[in-house]
Amino acid sequence: MLGWNGKFLRIDLTKNKISIDKYEPDLAKLFLGGRGFAAKILWDEVKQDVKPFSPENKLIFATGPLTGLPIPSSGKIIVASKSPLTGGYGDGNLGSMLAVNLRRAGFDFLIIEGKFKKSCYVNIIDNKVEIKSAQDLWGLGTFETENFLNKRHGKNSGIALIGQAGENLVPYSTILSQRGRSGGRTGMGAVMGSKNLKAIVIEGKGEIPISNKNFLEKVSKEAYADIRSKPEYDLWMRQGTMITVDWSQENCVLPSYNFKEGVFEHANEINGESMERIKETQKGCPFCNMICGNVVKDSQDELVELDYENVAMLGSNIGIGDLKQISFLNRMADDLGIDTISTGNSIGFTIECSQNGLIDEKIDWGEFEKIQELLEKIAHKDGLGNLVSQGTKLMSQKIGKNSQNWAMNIKGLEISAYDCHSTPGMALAYGTSPIGAHHKDAWIISWEVNAGREKYTPNKVEKLIEMQRIRGGIFETLVTCRLPWVELGFELNWYEKFLKAVTGFDYKIDDLYTIADRIYTLIRSYWIREFGFWNREMDIPPSRWFNEETSIGPFKGAKLNKTSYDIMLDWYYEERGWTKNGIPKDSTLNNLGLNFVSKELKRSS
After folding, report:
1. What is the reported pTM?
2. How far apart are CA 262 and CA 250, in angstroms?
3. Tally of domains in the chain
4. Which one of 69, 332, 444, 480 is at 20 to 30 Å from 101 when CA atoms are compared?
5. In terms of domains, do 333 and 262 share one?
6. Partners of 18 in beta bridges
7. What is the pLDDT of residue 510?
8. Closest Cα to residue 340, out of 414, 278, 282?
């Protein structure tokens, strides 16, 4: 089975048991890799009554057939589990040498289960696996821990680890790698912490089996050259995702003051040009030649990697217009191992609660010192931080008094950095994302702005599903980064060539779309089985976007139309082959080869 190793590693921390197993070729045929592998494993092995922090929950690191090969931006890995933040399927995408080393060690995925009796880390060197003590690392931040492990195991090792937030089971803690590469904002760091697992260190020295090495070298060389030739390449290399600050401001979608507005009065002070003035260097993931990591000096003259989501959520969304202060908060979050998006969102919610007299603590927009203190308290669940660490859904349920109106989450996952008062297509993308409100599955907003942002039309739904198939399907299963395609227009047919060279199979884009549909439907089924029911309210954004108009900017007075959104949701379900309540139909399950799902769904529908 060229292109895949055909093997996986299972580590049972409770039993201190290591096993190396082969998986059936049909798993690769039907689910390809990455998110597909993770969704199928969680469906098979993590049942309805298993709690996210139970030793019976599984933490999965999954690669795809292109991962770790000399192909543009192929240094990616999926980390997945039952989410402690949402209670449903959760995953994240991490750029790291961990991905490369897992493949070179001879494995396509790693399953971690159980709970070790005390703090530990796992060291994998090809087929040799050891569970080592991490008692001298527990309580340390991610930077210090990674420095220690690099010295012990070498800088070529792949390392994934958690900070204090993961140790303390903060449900939006993440897994970190390479000093600032963060993945799994659905609480994957907390799942890792619940297993007393501080880190994973992998050293792989083998070769990944491929079908046609000479063809792969040829097509990869051409692909790297094609990326460098793109018109936007130079600007991208200067600013990376930070170019989005200006774009979002101009198009009134830059989240400001907890998504009250889509413009920010200090946007010019936190944009890409401002970043360039304090930029020190760049860093990127393995095999990438359009690196997005811009490293700047923060307000304490320490180095930190910035991108758009961090800056918007820890900047405009909480009223901070000083890029060095934002950078400092970003570095704090990375070191503590906590998601910047949910953190900025939860702090914004807290500030509104303070303004409305719903909590005793006084905190206002842009109060850097108080926000800094709160961030530390969140990671340690200290004082007010204990409440804020739970995320906006649980916070609003506990506080009550209409606070749910400004709790900006969907399915419990905080919305990432695009305001949708005037973009119904992007609102629907958030509403139907398979992990909760995240942009990675369908960043339709740029297309929508050009195609008619005010429209509620069937073609907008069709475009959304196409983007979900590409972004959340193709790239999350190959597993490679989507940014060459998204930002520079790197054509999708390159991936047909890569797959032919690596696997020998003639995959066409339509074949990959079918795999994507299979995975999306399986993930939706997992949510339904887990909750025991489903209704369309779970796919609808917060009431703020429907009930409150924006008060400034070119789109002053904008808000979503609930009736029209519901019609779009109907179209979406119909196109997906799901019922009016968002439950996959038997005919759809059969057509996608998911017959094994039907019986369990009947109990919930």
Report:
1. 0.97
2. 9
3. 3
4. 332
5. yes
6. 11
7. 97
8. 414
State whether 474 and 413 are in the same domain: no
Q: What angle do CA 549, 404, 467 make, to 5 degrees?
A: 70
**Model pLDDT for residues 554-565, shown as the tens digit of each residue:** 999 999 999 999
The rounded Cα 79 to chain-centroid distance in angstroms is 9
Query: Rg for the chain (alpha carbons), in Å?
Result: 22
* Helix, strand or coil, per DSSP, at residue 482: coil
Q: 289 is written with which tokens?
A: 């030649």
My answer on whether 181 and 248 are in the same domain is no
Look up the CATH number of the domain holding residue 327.
1.10.569.10
Q: What pLDDT does 202 receive?
A: 98
265 shares a domain with 194: no
- Asked whether residue 446 is assigned to any structural domain, the reply reads yes
Same domain, 155 and 133: yes
- CA distances to 149, 257, 318, 355 from 261, rounded to whole Å, are 44, 7, 11, 17
Strands 7-12 and 17-22: antiparallel
**Peptide bond before residue 449 is cis, with ω within 30 degrees of 0:** no
Range of the domain at 531: 425-489+508-602
Residue linked to tokens 């903060």: 170
CA–CA gap between residue 593 and residue 399 (Å, rounded): 44
Q: Is the dihedral of CA 281, 286, 289, 293 positive or negative?
A: negative
Model confidence pLDDT, tens digit, residues 566-586: 999 999 999 999 999 999 999
Task: Give yes or no: residues 409 and 465 share one domain.
Answer: no
Q: Do 133 and 119 meet the contact criterion of CB atoms below 8 Å apart?
A: yes
> With contact defined as beta carbons under 8 Å apart, do 553 and 316 qualify?
no
How is 8-32 classified by DSSP, letter by letter? EEEEETTTTEEEEEE--HHHHHHH-
- Residue with structure tokens 């609660």? 353
Q: Residue 316 is inside which H or E element, if any?
A: none
Q: Give the end of a domain, one of 385, 402, 418.
A: 418
Calpha distance 163→184 (Å, rounded): 13
Q: Are 160 and 176 in contact (CB under 8 A)?
A: yes
Distance (Å, rounded) from C-alpha 29 to C-alpha 556?
Answer: 50
Instruction: Evaluate whether residue 330 is within a structural domain.
Output: yes
For tokens 């589990």, what's the residue? 81
Q: Tokens in use for 502?
A: 């690596």
